[in-house]
Amino acid sequence: MKALIIDPAVHSLGGHHFNAVQRLQGELAGLGVAAPCLGSAYADRRVVDELACTPTFTKSVYGRSYATPAEFADSVEETGRQLAGAMRRSGMPDLIILPCCDQVSAMALARQLKRSWLRRPRVLLWLLYGPHHLQTPDDPAAAGLDGEARAAFAALAASAGGVEAYCETPAMADFFRRLVPFDVGVMPGPGLPARARVAKAASGPPVISCIGFANRAKGYRLLPQAVPYVLDRHHDVRFMIHGIVNGSDAEADQPMFDRLAGLGERVQVHREVLTSGEYLARLAEADLLLLPYDPKVYRRRGSGVFADAHHVGIPVVAPKDCAFAQPAFDGGWGVGMRGYDGNSLGIAVLEGLDRLEPLAACAARAAGRVRDDLGRVLSGSVEGLAGRPAGLLRRFRPGNTPRSA
User: Fold this and answer.
1) Can you tell me the mean pLDDT for 256-262?
2) Degrees, nearest 5: CA angle 318-323-327
3) What is the 8-class DSSP label of residue 244?
4) Residue 397, pLDDT score
């Protein structure tokens, strides 16, 4: 049996695209299935070696301009051409996994599968954001993209040997269920294996952390106002701020990190790429995690860092309108920002510090209840394919409708 992972955004160590591919490969290896990956054409040598990654795609899933209707067709053509070349060399797999699928990837893959008469792979995918990656699906400005998404996923359903799809939040799943002709479940994207941390010692000052890729929608721009606000009012707290801006839409924000680093010894600033182990170690140091994501982008979206905080058992601060944080608000381990500015973030942090003990207790209980279903889903896909006949006649089997899963 052959599997293939497709993620045009995986290009460097660290981050959730790298972690997703690495986790998928590890789970599949345990099932006896090799799963090489097609990634960014600019993937560095370590990614190529560690993920058995073939550099393929010149555009990331985050690379669209959405400037004209023709831009979608051009992106599909370019992505499809690169995908076809890579799959001619690798051969058609039995299972294709897209840990971050958009309508360009879906349409390009649909056209490639339509050309295959001998094998119709099953497709497993995650829909992490709406048709516009920088706008919430509720934004009227993004509504014009619904048609291209509907067409792309209908084409994929018609060309694949079944589609299994997931979103990270119920709100995003509700949106996509009206666009796609297959069922959409709710499950976090592939990430680091769930592991609750060892209970932290009560001694020592509280550590407030913000960690990850610092693109504009992640809200790092709120920190220069929020951090001094908290430092002036809480004389023990420490901040650990980690943000990678290279290769993001926030490269011009480097001076902001310099200003944060100049706030004194109670503020540590890091900008290096972290390995999975380093990332988990930094995350586990946090007593309170800041996720000041822009609700204009993240109103329905999930967050990989939030999922990791849930697994580890860390209280969070996030905008009250971000769907990914709702389990924390409901479970008593999240503090909601009442507005979206630096002052609101600072106020929420102080509230979190005042309530840190009950927040931490609720976070630990929530971590103990985490269900990591990725292994079960992959095992089901592999077992379902193991006995499935392949070949030309399956394309014409009566009842083989796009809604088959």
Assistant:
1) 94
2) 80
3) B
4) 36
Would you tell me how many other CB atoms lie within 10 Å of the CB of residue 59? 17
For 147, what's the count of Cα atoms within 13 Å in the CB-facing half-sphere? 4
CB neighbourhood size of 190 (10 A):
29
DSSP string, 304-373: HHHHHHHHHT--EEEETT-GGGHHHHHHT-EEEESSSSHHHHHHHHHHHHHTHHHHHHHHHHHHHT----
Q: What is the DSSP string of 108-143?
A: HHHHHHHT-SS---EEEEE--S-SSTTS-TTSGGGG
State pLDDT tens for residues 195-239: 766 666 567 899 999 999 898 999 999 999 999 999 999 999 999
More confident residue, 136 or 248: 136
pTM: 0.91
Q: What angle do CA 133, 106, 131 make, to 5 degrees?
A: 25
The Cα–Cα gap between 3 and 9 comes to 19
> How would you label 287-325 residue by residue, b for 16+ Cβ within 10 Å and e otherwise?
bbbbbbbbbebbbbbbbbbbbbbbbbbbbbbbbbbbbbb
CA of 209: how far to CAs of 39, 63, 81, 116, 258, in Å? 30, 29, 42, 49, 17
Question: 342-367, pLDDT tens digit by residue?
Answer: 999 999 999 999 999 999 999 999 99
Residue 135 pLDDT exceeds 90: yes
- Sketch out the chain's domains with CATH numbers: 3-193+373-396 (3.40.50.2000), 207-368 (3.40.50.2000)
Looking at residue 79, its pLDDT comes to 98
pLDDT of residue 201: 59
Alpha-helical segments (H) within 222-286: 223-233, 254-261, 276-284
Q: What is the pLDDT of residue 166?
A: 99
Q: To the nearest 10°, report the CA torsion of 91, 97, 103, 104.
A: -40
- Element (H or E) spanning 210, and its range? strand 207-210
Any bridge partners for residue 122, and if so which? 95
Residues 6+ apart with CB under 8 A from 404: 162
∠22-24-30 over CA atoms, to 5°? 105
Q: 142 is written with which tokens?
A: 């993004």
Rg (CA), the chain: 22
The pairing of beta strand 184-186 with beta strand 163-167: parallel
Number of H helices, E strands in the chain: 15, 13
